[in-house]
Amino acid sequence: MPKPSRKFVWIALVALACVAAAQRPPSTAPPGSDTIKIPFESYTLPNGLTVILSTDHTTPTVAVNVWYHVGSKNEVPGRTGFAHLFEHIMFTGSGHVPYGLHDKLTEGIGGNNNGTTSNDRTTYFEIVPSNYLESSLWIESDRMGFLLDTLDIAKLNAQRDIVKNERRQGVDNQPYGKVEEILARATYPANNPYSWDVIGSMEDLSAASADDVKDFFRTYYAPNNAYLTIVGDFDPVQAKAWVAKYFTDVPRGKPVVRPNVATATLPAERRFFYEDRVQVPRLYIQWPTVGEKNDDQYALDVLGSILSGPRTARLTKALVYDQQAAASVSAYQGSNEDVGEFMVTITPRPGHTLTELETAADAVIEKLKADGPTPEEILKATAGEELGFVRGLESNLGKAMRLSDSAGFHGDPGDYKIAFQKSMSVTAADVKRVANKYLTKGRVVLSVVPTGKPDEASKPAESQKVTGAEDTPRPEVKR
Amino acid sequence: MNALNRRMSAIVLAVALLALPLWAQQALDRSKIPPPGKPPALRVPTWTKTTLANGAELIVSEKHDLPLVSFSLTVLGGSDQFEPADRRGLASIAASMLSEGTKTRDGEALSNVLQLLGTTVSVGIGNDSGAMGFVSTTGKFAPTLEILADMMVNSTFPAPALERIRAQRLVGLTAAKAQPGAIARRVFPKVVYGTAHPFGQLTTEETLKAITRDDVAAFAKAYYQPGRAVVVVVGDVTPASAKATVEKALAAWPAGGSKPNFSYPPLPPKQPTAIYLVDKPGAAQSTFAIGNPGPPRSTPDYYALEVMNTLLGGMFQSRLNANIREEKGLSYGVGSSFAFGKGPGPFRAGGDIISAKSDVALVEFMKELRGIEGSRPITDEELTTSKSSLVQSLPGMFASVSSIGAAIATLWTQGLPDDYYQQYGKSINAVTKADMVRVAKQYIDLDHLSIVIVGDRATIEGPLKATNIAPIVVLDIEGNRQ
Q: Is the same domain home to A380 and A451?
């Protein structure tokens, strides 16, 4: 799932040759070797704020990350998109920090700031020269404690307009842009909070009121629902003193009630097609699987690497190289906190139909389900994990995100290490088992076709037309 | 969560007690902005330079905190120097073809060995330089480099692979016709530079279809030559060990080649400012690209241009974004940039604008361009913020082995001195408000701008016309006049 963020990053039209290392994690050092570590210390303030500190003096910068355990899954129908809209409001100033000062004290001194919202969490960060740590803590504590002091309807409306533009840019004016929200709606029943996309609907964005904003803030933006992580070039004694100084008087909030999300399964295949202003059709197949808290996610990740990516991966090899019927194919497991999906995306070459490609992809997947992967396939899929991890250590922000995700989702900042070991321990039998367990008939097949060409859908006679998420029928709820 | 709380409860108490005197003695005055501490010293990596037996230059920078090595081989010159006008796209295809097989390994064998090494070799060729490289763990540096060398020296360019890559690129071109941003990226340079200038020449169905297997093999042979290349190794190596590894791996790469001279044809005659409207029926947003040819990276006005553009559209709090996004709410983000390179790369301002307010946004874009040219005086705070946002972002360039490698390679490709980063702050801080206004006037020509707008013609043409900013010329999605 995408994580909408506050800022659109302006990309210059500079066609510089770059060695932007294509990141597929890949090495063969044994799991648990001593490179897999991020030294940290952690404690909790009396108001419930979890604090995580990790020093790294490689560069004179520091990353501050504040992670709130709230995302689009805490929204209610009729107010979708609210968690993300709220993220924008967090940048409009607070009780003692006037609008604009945040950017001056980050970007204006060579640093950076941003926020991102997912289904499960909202996170805010500053990257600053190390002598600006105190002002970053001052800003973060002020918006945690005093946001509502200066909030008014004008600020809400201004950010609402910007978020609507973000939706236009990422969804409405983007070829294939509505796919995610159609798939979410087709996969999850109405009472499942993963049935809507993070960006939300235009209608709901228009409906949000100032009272909604205040309630949301009081419920979720309290220290007992937050994780403050500081990574980089700082003195821990000084940092702890500043954390105490600025965060101690922020009052604890009420206990947060989290939605109880049932695992989703589909009893049968659901087929749809969507006409879009595209020139090239595209096929999406999505199976509901498992989320962050289920260890099957690791084998599903490996399954994705065995099916797509390098030219020897099974779907890539069969569809793109051997049959030359597809221009591209991807397969991957996306894990949210409570649920996950395995998704296959196929773009055809001219002269090849989506029906043909669906059949070809199914044949590859069925063979893998029958025979399981080879030991060499497992080795190749996990060989890059160590390099991927060590490269992540080069970024203060990357480390802060890893520590806070581990703490927020798994209750321990050091959980990343367990996750790494689990990923390295996946066996061929595990992959075979999860492929058979999850890649079943219970799936959503969505064809996106050029406007006026419904016949280009995969098995068009068996597929139902939808014009967007709004008229996509929800799955039946099993009682 | 339970485990965390249990284990940390003792520390919580200790910290609370320790901290008590700091904040409890007096109420915290939150209205005071905490002052910054003493500025940290700028730490620029150091490196050594030498020459390989085949004539390529070698630069090595040590960084031992993590077991990582970044390798890049950068070639001076790119598609604009080495591609014929009727074969645009050849360089990019040649770069991809290096992964398709060597004398001793076919494409699958190359892929398999790299997967087991846990890394990927990336190959790319841009407008005026190209590079291939990888990041590996220390232990995998030598074997990965051996694969890279095999790809560069011994590629066989199998004809069936060319057909597959060509077909994939053609699908990509077709798909891009539905993408407003991609349409603007193609139409804007064509309008600004014309098709007689390499900057205005596009990869099209025709040029892709014209490329032969022999073209690809000849291009790669002529292009990848040590006389125009630099190898940069950064990370967990020593200069001596890196040199030995590189010499051994590149022993079969024969000497030859020279640096291209980067001569560009003259720019087309200036045209009066016009709006070039590309119809995208029903579009929810209009994609703007406003600009003109700019100076090369070698211009003495580089620093003044950087500071000026930072204020105009180079940061979140820039004038363009503050006005059009934050104040007016017309966009998710707008900005501006100069594409500094060997040639006269464009100045470009733009972003995606809500369709119904395309006219309002155009008025505001023009207002800010006039503003930076003098009608809106630059404040002291704007000058300070623009400079420090540039100068103090330098340390971030030296955080990873790959970013250090890129920082060093840039000095080499742009012919900049070794102490460039040490002197950067001084050069930026020397820029005055008068310099900023002067370069804005000199390099953003309000009378000869190309204003490319991709959007819903039926609803935006009338309002755009009513602004009286410039006449409207309607183009198709390939940038041809209708």
A: yes
Average pLDDT over residues B396-411: 96
Distance from the Cα of A451 to chain B's closest Cα (Å) equals 12
The per-residue pLDDT for range A28-82, each reduced to its tens digit, is 344 445 788 999 999 999 999 999 999 999 999 999 999 999 999 999 999 999 9
Which of B92, B119, B320 is the best mutation test for A, with the most CBs of A within 10 A? B119
- Mean pLDDT within B32-39: 95
Residue B58 shares a structural domain with residue B207:
yes
- A98 touching B (Cβ < 8 Å): no
- Which structural domain range is residue B74 located in? 48-249
A59 CB within 8 Å of a chain B CB: yes
The two three-digit tokens of residue A67, written as one number? 């992670």
What CA–CA distances, in Å, run from A382 to A20, A360, A361, A421?
Answer: 21, 26, 23, 11
Identify the domain containing residue A184 by its residue range.
41-247
Answer whether A27 sits within 8 Å of B137, measured CB to CB. yes
ipTM value, please give it.
0.90
Separation between Cα atoms, residue A20 and residue B409, nearest integer Å: 13
Residue B13 lies in a domain: no
Measured between beta carbons, the chain B residues lying within 8 angstroms of A146 are 30
User: Do residue B317 and residue A390 have CB atoms under 8 angstroms apart?
Assistant: no
- A chain contacts of residue B278, beta-carbon cutoff 8 Å: none
Do B227 and B283 belong to one domain? no
Q: So what's the pLDDT on residue A97?
A: 97
Q: Are residues A220 and A349 in the same domain?
A: no
The domain spanning residue B140 has which CATH number? 3.30.830.10
Inter-helix orientation angle A354-371/A428-438, to 10°: 130
Select from A164, A172, A175 the Cβ nearest to the Cβ of B179. A175
Identify all chain A residues contacting B402, using CB atoms and an 8 Å cutoff.
19, 21
- Per-residue model confidence as pLDDT tens digits over A212-270: 889 999 999 999 999 999 999 999 999 999 999 999 999 999 999 999 998 889 999 99
The alpha-carbon gap from B148 to the nearest alpha carbon of chain A, in Å, equals: 13
Q: How far apart are CA B412 and CA B409, in angstroms?
A: 5
Domain match, A169 and A52 both: yes
Q: State the DSSP code for A168.
A: I
Please tell me the distance from the alpha carbon of residue B136 to that of residue B143, in angstroms, as a whole number.
Answer: 10
Domain count, chain A: 2
Tell whether A301 and A168 lie within a shared domain: no
Confidence of residue B252 (pLDDT cuts 50, 70, 90): very high
Q: Which pLDDT score is estimated for A476?
A: 80
3-class state of residue B287 by DSSP: strand
